Amino acid sequence: MAETDRVIIVGAGHGGGAVAATLRQYGFKGTIMVIGTEPLAPYQRPPLSKAWLKGEADAASLALRPPAFYAKANIDLRLATTVTAIDTGAKTVATDTGDTFGYDWLILATGARARRLPIPGMELAGVLELRSAADADQLKAALGPGKRLAVVGGGYIGLEAAASATALGATVTVIERENRVLARVASVELSEAYQVAHRRRGVVIELSAQVAALEGVDGRITGVRLGDGRLIACDVALVGVGAVANIELAQAAGITCDLGITVDLAARTSDPSVFAIGDCTWRPLPHYGRDFRLESVPNALEQARQAAASICGRALAAPEVPWFWSDQFDLKLQIVGLNFGATHTVVRGDPATESFAVFHMTDDNHLRAVEAVNMADAFMAGRLLIAKDRKLAPAQICDMSVAMKDLTV
Amino acid sequence: MPHVTFIEHNGTAHTVEAVIGKSLMEAAVDNSVPGIDADCGGACACATCHVFVAPEWEAKTGTRNEAEVAMLNFAAEVKPNSRLSCQIEITAAHDGLVVHMPDGQH
């Protein structure tokens, strides 16, 4: 790192904002430019489907840093600006504002975009997705007592929005293609508990339901037509069927990509001057011996620290075990690890009480993942045990008289 | 506005302005105090905003909630006066509050 080094960060989301701040915290003295397509300074996305939707958070509390931070930290924010091309040979980026900027280090924090469904009616007014603050504002404006929300896709964003909309007095139907919600991302035990919890609080859940079309009158949605012919009438539809990494810019620049931009444990891409962080990356998972794409704030922050440390010549921290959280109604879900290699599950607590945890184990009882609902100690214990690759006795996990803390010593 | 002081593990003190109604964690993050990571943004999900409340301030910062206790049980260097700073809401009574920080949050 030289004092004249120029860092350009492409993407002003959670990762982009965090890596800029972390570079300064690590003593980076050169110039930092953050270029983002959205008109807003970096903000937190997790509250968009929760506190923000319910009107419990304002724009200031959403912001990653107060507005004055960027000038004070000498970070050049270029908002409402999109990078259109990278020239890794000349080490420049071009923008849609007609500018070309040179870099010594480039950090790609381009994120992911909502997957689009190839069905008729996606263009109707009232068909929304939820990735940005602008999306959340549209959804919030459409919700309220008596409004009918159809959620296409029973993933985290859909279920969180369903919970928030219910709290706002809306009537919600979740339409899921698989035979359980959270099918791609959670265990059967967790899916079943969330189906029960949502239904108990008034959410209608349609499982194994194909969506044939979104139907409307005068260009505005009136309902979701299912494969079996039924119509779910609605005033607004939220489509949350997964996300696709924004890798096109990197691909066009000749940087190696898989399902995301391929990086190592220093967040470095195939070009030694280019890093990538967050949802857009295809990254190693050292605890699991494979590569994967993660969509989470903790992942973006870990990689922000990796990239900043690499640029500043600092030692890298030990790799974290991936973790996630989701707040729905009064259910606090914390997940640590991934169930790669797990062959059986052990449940601690009773799902009916809405305080329980699902432990995912290998054949020889090594812990791979913990899904904890209103059971923070199981989550925290899991974090330590997976990092240490510890073996556990299933009988001890089930025994509520054994404190989680005692399993970690 | 109340002033609060964060003292790093190496003894460096940071006195910052806190906003009434926001959390102690936000006072640190908004003022770029190093040593408070707050990865989850205040959802009580990550235990990376761990602080030690000076004994004379414990009464004014309230008691730990159930989830906070469970999280702190597993934090590094946990002590009886450990708190997650995202769970302390700033009031006018906190002017002069002093908290210390652990060696690291990860």
Q: What does the average pLDDT of chain A come to?
A: 96
* Largest sheet data of chain B: 5 strands, mixed
DSSP strand content of chain B? 15-25%
Tertiary shape of chain A: globular
- Judged by helices, strands and strand pairing, the structural class of chain A is alpha/beta
Helix-residue proportion of chain A: 10-25%
Quick structural gist:
The complex is a heterodimer of chains A (409) and B (106). Chain A has 409 residues and is an alpha/beta fold.
Describe the protein's architecture and organization.
The complex is a heterodimer of chains A (409) and B (106). Chain A is of the alpha/beta class. Chain A folds into three domains: 178 residues, 3-Layer(bba) Sandwich (FAD/NAD(P)-binding domain), CATH 3.50.50; 113 residues, FAD/NAD(P)-binding domain; 78 residues, FAD/NAD-linked reductase, C-terminal dimerisation domain (Enolase-like, domain 1, 2-Layer Sandwich), CATH 3.30.390.30. Chain A has eleven helices and 26 strands. In chain A, the strands form seven sheets. Chain A has a five-stranded parallel sheet. A five-stranded parallel sheet of chain A has the order 9-16-10-11-12. The longest helix of chain A has 16 residues. Chain A is globular and about 60 Å long. With 106 residues, chain B is an alpha+beta fold. In chain B, a hairpin with a 5-residue loop joins β1 and β2. Helices cover 13% and strands 20% of the residues of chain B. Chain B has a five-stranded mixed sheet with strand order 2-1-5-3-4. Chain B contains two helices and five strands, in the order ββαβαββ. Chains A and B meet through α1, α8, β22 and α9 of A and α1 and α2 of B.
Properties at a glance:
heterodimer, A: 409 residues, alpha/beta, FAD/NAD(P)-binding domain, Enolase-like, domain 1, five-stranded parallel sheet, 24% helix, B: alpha+beta, Ubiquitin-like (UB roll), five-stranded mixed sheet, 5 strands, 20% strand
